[in-house]
């Protein structure tokens, strides 16, 4: 099956699962049915683009904030200095993000994953996302900034989907994210369940928490707390510490357990990143399935490959898809290389820096 059709099928599958898991939530169902219809049209636009030789990815990752209120151990964004304690003057304006969201909609993009730093530090950009209901925005948040007003915003604008980061149980989460953070996250989840909001969690999977986060009791505790979506994100040794990284055996366990948990919790959506990228001929970076936009507008192959030859402060998404760097990464099949840790491009820094140097 062509990659575009495979990814289109994946989007339809996510919506079918979300509708199934929201059977008793009228407000959410109304939103999901409308969104599923809109996504069919977006998939058709991607097919038409493909026929014209322009592959439009269904996903974008947008790191909209440089600021974060936490100091998590091994934070990837702090390790590469894209996350700091105050907002960078280089951050793109909310208006410019709004324009890019509207361009993404016109191109046929389905999901824009919002990340950071802490994305809730950019309420102005969240407002622009709320104004683009045709796009779905999974918001990867540390879950500690959900004031009543913020909860009300997400409740009203159901295309903003909270995805709360956690590391496993209380001890594992507090050890990495700070004392008491697990309690704050559980309170946020309780408030969201109280409002009947569709929300998820994102777990960075390492050798240390693999058994905990794949345990029936852990997943059932999330389900009982009203969580409907779990992202298992494979650890990337950003700060050079490869010890906790999963090996092939661990990956096989992750894939097998995911299947068993899916059978046990049919009304939960369980996704893993990068998941079984091999089935798709390698990683989906550099526009194959997604690309990353950093907080100052740089179009990058992936959050774990922070290199760019085009700025979206004035360039278009269409230009980025056509950028020399993305094209050369795709043409040289960097995405298909074997690798340690959850990213194919991360270990290929030198090769990508060489590609960039050749452009100057
Ligand atoms: S919440 Fe996210 S961005 Fe903030 S310090 Fe933790 S890992 Fe880094």
Helical residues, percent: 40-55%
Average residue pLDDT: 90
Q: Which fold name is given in CATH as the topology?
A: TIM Barrel
Structural class: alpha/beta
Task: Report low-confidence residues grouped into runs of 5 or more.
Answer: none
Going across the biggest sheet, name each strand in turn: 3-4-5-6-7
Largest sheet: 5 strands, parallel
* Overall outline: globular
Number of domains: 1
Tell me what portion of residues adopts beta-strand conformation.
5-15%
Distance between the termini: 38 Å
In CATH terms, what is the architecture? Alpha-Beta Barrel
What name goes with the CATH superfamily? Answer: Aldolase class I
The number of helical segments is: 14
How large is the radius of gyration? 19 Å
Chemical compounds bound to the protein: iron/sulfur cluster
SSE arrangement, N to C: HHEHHEHEHEHHEHHEHEEEHHH
Q: What is the strand tally?
A: 9
In the CATH scheme, the class would be Alpha Beta
Question: Your description of this structure?
Answer:
The protein has helices at residues 3-20, 26-51, 76-79, 94-107, 123-130, 148-156, 170-177, 181-194, 210-213, 216-224, 248-264, 317-321, 324-331, 349-359; strands spanning 59-63, 111-115, 137-141, 160-166, 200-205, 229-234, 269-273, 292-293, 299-300. The strands form 2 sheets. A 5-stranded parallel beta sheet has the order 3-4-5-6-7. α11 (248-264) links the parallel β6 (229-234) and β7 (269-273). With 360 residues, it is α/β, with parallel strands linked by helices. α4 (94-107) runs parallel beside α5 (123-130). The model has no long low-confidence stretch (mean pLDDT 90). The protein has a single domain (56-359), classed as Alpha-Beta Barrel (TIM Barrel), CATH 3.20.20. Bound molecules: iron/sulfur cluster.
């Amino acid at each position: 099956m062509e990659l575009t059709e495979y990814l289109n099928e994946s989007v339809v599958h996510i919506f079918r699962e979300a509708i199934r898991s929201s059977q008793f939530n009228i407000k959410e169902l109304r939103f999901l049915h409308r969104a599923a219809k809109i996504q069919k049209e977006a998939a058709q636009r991607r097919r038409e683009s493909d026929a014209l030789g322009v592959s439009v990815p269904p996903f974008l990752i947008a790191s909209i904030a440089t600021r974060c209120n936490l100091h998590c151990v091994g934070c990837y964004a702090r390790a590469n200095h894209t996350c700091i304690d105050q907002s960078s003057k280089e951050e793109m304006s909310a208006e410019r993000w709004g324009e890019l969201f509207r361009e993404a909609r016109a191109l046929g993009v389905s999901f824009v994953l919002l990340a950071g730093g802490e994305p809730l530090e950019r309420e102005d950009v969240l407002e622009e996302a709320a104004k683009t209901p045709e796009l779905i925005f999974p918001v990867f948040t540390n879950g500690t900034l959900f004031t009543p007003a913020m909860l009300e915003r997400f409740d009203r604008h159901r295309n903003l989907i909270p995805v709360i980061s956690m590391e496993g149980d209380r001890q594992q989460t507090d050890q990495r994210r700070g004392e008491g953070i697990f309690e704050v996250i559980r309170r946020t989840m309780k408030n969201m369940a109280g409002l009947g909001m569709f929300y998820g969690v994102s777990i960075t999977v390492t050798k240390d928490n693999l058994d905990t986060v794949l345990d029936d009791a852990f997943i059932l505790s999330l389900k009982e707390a009203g969580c409907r979506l779990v992202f298992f994100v494979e650890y990337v040794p950003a700060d050079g510490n490869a010890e906790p990284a999963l090996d092939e055996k661990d990956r096989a366990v992750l894939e097998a357990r995911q299947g068993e948990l899916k059978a046990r919790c049919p009304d939960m959506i369980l996704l893993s990143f990068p998941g079984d990228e091999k089935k798709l001929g390698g990683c989906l970076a550099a526009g194959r399935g997604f690309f990353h936009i950093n907080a100052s507008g740089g179009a990058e192959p992936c959050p774990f490959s922070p290199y760019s030859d085009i700025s979206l402060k004035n360039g278009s998404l269409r230009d980025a898809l056509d950028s020399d760097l993305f094209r050369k990464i795709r043409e040289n099949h960097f995405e298909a290389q074997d690798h340690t840790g959850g990213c194919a491009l991360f270990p290929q820094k030198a090769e990508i820096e060489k590609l960039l140097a050749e452009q100057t």
